[in-house]
Design brief:
homodimer; 428 residues; alpha/beta; TIM Barrel; two-stranded antiparallel sheet; Luciferase-like_dom (chains A, B)
Chain lengths: 428, 428
């Protein structure tokens, strides 16, 4: 089983910053993240995972936003950790492949082969406005992403394995025949190459992706080595899992070449009652106006003015939104017969990801069920509050998984890609 | 006196990688840079300084190239250092202001106020070809750089000083009236803002620049807080110093608001003879074909085929080249009556920067002379070989400067900007 620590400020629950278990003054404090990294490494977790956006999202009035940029943060954490993977989200829509390929190669060197890239295409309109652009259509973003990956992969291959000969006596540092231009000339990019950094321990970072659209799934089947997904029910997760794994052979890949990791936010108590009590405390700190705005953001429709104790109203179709997440939210509201207020509370913990409140054993049971029934190769753990929620998971749930033989007790593999059971030579 | 450690692979001398004092296998090894950072901090130096280019420059066959990217490297070093400034070179020509402003704000948070940005406009043609562009003309690059700085400064100001109120009881995290869009709409950029990261300890990074053209000097006078320059003689350095300081009042700035730091490569021996012996050893390891290519690169003219033991031939004017550096090289060749071989040897140590071979006392004498005679506010130290050359400077020259009362014995100031005697509120 693969387990990532998905870090977010002082916790994934949108009211975490108001809870006494957190210190919301620490979201830009590197020592906070150093502490989180140490806890995750103590638990032998696979990776630290950082989401990202390129605009100030949501309502900063009511949530602790404006934290550190992922690549600088994970580089900083690379030198204070030894084993854990470092997965940073970077957009293909508002970046250049030369910069991105180079920075990940650099992080991979710095961390000794622990870099991962979560590839996103940035659906937000406000993100486009920070780069003087109109938001490109969904299909254009994915087309650009594909070409971006072709260029990045070529750049990572532009230094051959034996390029550096370092022959001091004869004054030959590199074998020039192993370092070549890529001369890419496509629809979105024209890049000469080679990269100006030597081949890194993994050759390229672990490639991670999270899109659940048709375009997203095809992209993942072609490029991704790990997929992060939001799934609420075992059945939906099994369907997603089978669907994605089925797509791999068309790209010459086996089902083992891609790991599927649903997000889970574990609210942990020593008794179930204690866990539900913590869940209730967090729920009571929710600011309804903020929650309504978040819900409007997810659905791509303004819900202001609808009664909080009424149902989710019918909404016009939103072709620019994240369809899979919209469907997930609608299904959830319908399945559980939720009011707007209830729906806001259900989403506050994980923005559509699964929230599990219970004892360590109960949470381990749930993870085991999905893992052993074709729904997941592991999980992206989204602690509701930080650092305590991560410490509870590592100190209480991880040992339970280890006792059951489901999770490693020591780090294995030199690089992140090896830990995911992937070959180093797998550059397509 | 301000002293930076200008780090470059295993040393600034182009043959350093072949010398037994270095280990040229380490240029992508983070432990090498951690060691350099610790040495520099032991010597109470102001900053680590990293140059950058966006293409594989020179002839990788004959030099140890392809090292780490500056922003990821300095972020990694931020968590293993406490006091030293971290100055990364980033181009305004091939980047977007939102990304750059954000990454430096993040590095400034991570380092507790130690970030600096060396602003360059990337003159190379091969750099343009990695971004699908033609190399823009000199004046276009500087125009873009000015607008880039206007946008970046506005983004750094987009979170007011008291924006984060963190009122957990009432659920108010930030005072929205202190966080605003910048709505920049210019010739090169259109950026809405605000930045998606909170105001950093310094407000913005220390701004550093190195252009010596007319455009470059005006840009520095308007924006820069430190200027890095190549000067071979006291007279030239004094002229540059006076010229640049004279330009400041037009921008409402005082001469103290900008520090001028010529580059110096110190070749240190316990006797003068030992220093000259080391210089000779390095010279003997120079590969003439590589040196000729470097010289051609600096002059922007192909010198292949000219006899090494003949003089520098007359060359056609090169309007796209770095005029101040071309002039410096021509003056040097003429002043010292150098052959091509001799000129290559003189440039191998510092690519046009001053090389000083001597005892610690002799080197301290030279630095003192420039510092006390209106030629420098400090120096960018370019060790010929690393880590030993930096250790020698820190352990032998720094104490000599300290005894003379020219250099600090303890770190002062909380932030890099304070250490440079600059106000925190100085955002224009």
């Amino acid at each position: 089983m693969h387990l990532n620590a998905f870090l977010m400020g002082v916790g994934h629950h949108e009211a975490a910053w108001r809870h006494p278990l957190t210190d919301s003054g620490r979201i830009t404090d590197i020592r906070h993240y150093e502490e989180l990294a140490r806890i995750a490494e103590r638990g032998k977790l696979d990776s630290l995972f950082l989401a990202d956006g390129l605009a100030l999202r949501g309502e900063v009035t009511h949530n602790a936003l404006g934290a550190l940029e992922p690549l600088t943060l994970l580089s900083a954490l690379a030198t204070v950790t030894e084993h854990i993977g470092l997965i940073a989200t970077v957009s293909t829509t508002y970046n250049e492949p030369f910069h991105v390929a180079r920075k990940f190669a650099s992080l991979d060197h710095i961390s000794g082969g622990r870099a991962g890239w979560n590839i996103v295409t940035s659906a937000g309109e406000s993100e486009a406005r920070n780069f003087g652009l109109e938001r490109p259509a969904h299909s254009v973003r994915y087309h650009r992403a594909e070409e971006f990956l072709e260029v990045a992969n070529a750049l990572w291959e532009s230094w051959g394995d034996g390029a550096v000969v370092n022959d001091r006596v004869n004054g030959i540092y590199a074998d020039k025949s192993s370092i070549g231009p890529i001369n890419h000339d496509g629809q979105h990019f024209k890049v000469e190459g080679p990269l100006n950094i030597q081949r890194s321990p993994q050759g390229r970072p672990l490639l991670v992706q999270a899109g659940s659209s048709e375009d997203g799934k095809e992209f993942a089947a072609r490029f991704a080595e790990a997929v992060f997904t939001a799934q609420q029910t075992l059945e939906d997760a099994q369907e997603f899992y089978a669907d994605l794994k089925r797509r791999l052979p068309a790209y010459g890949r086996s089902p083992y070449d891609l790991k599927i990791l649903p997000g889970v936010s574990p609210i942990i108590g020593s008794t179930e009652r204690e866990a539900l009590q913590l869940e209730k405390e967090l729920e009571d700190l929710i600011i309804p106006a903020y929650g309504l705005r978040q819900l409007s953001h997810i659905l791509g429709a303004d819900l202001t003015g609808y009664p909080l104790d009424g149902p989710l109203p019918p909404l016009p179709p939103n072709p620019d939104g994240q369809q899979s997440r919209i469907k997930l939210v609608r299904d959830l509201a319908e399945r559980e017969g939720l009011t707007l207020r209830g729906l806001i509370a259900r989403l506050a913990g994980g923005r559509g990801h699964r929230v599990l409140a219970g004892t360590p054993e109960q949470i381990a049971d749930e993870l085991q069920e999905w893992y052993q029934n074709g729904a997941a190769d592991g999980f992206n753990i989204m602690p509701p509050h930080l650092p305590g929620g991560l410490a509870d998971f590592v100190d209480l749930v991880v040992p339970e998984l280890q006792v059951r033989g489901l999770f490693r007790t020591e780090y294995d593999g030199r690089t992140l890609r090896e830990r995911y059971g992937l070959s180093l030579a797998g550059v397509s």
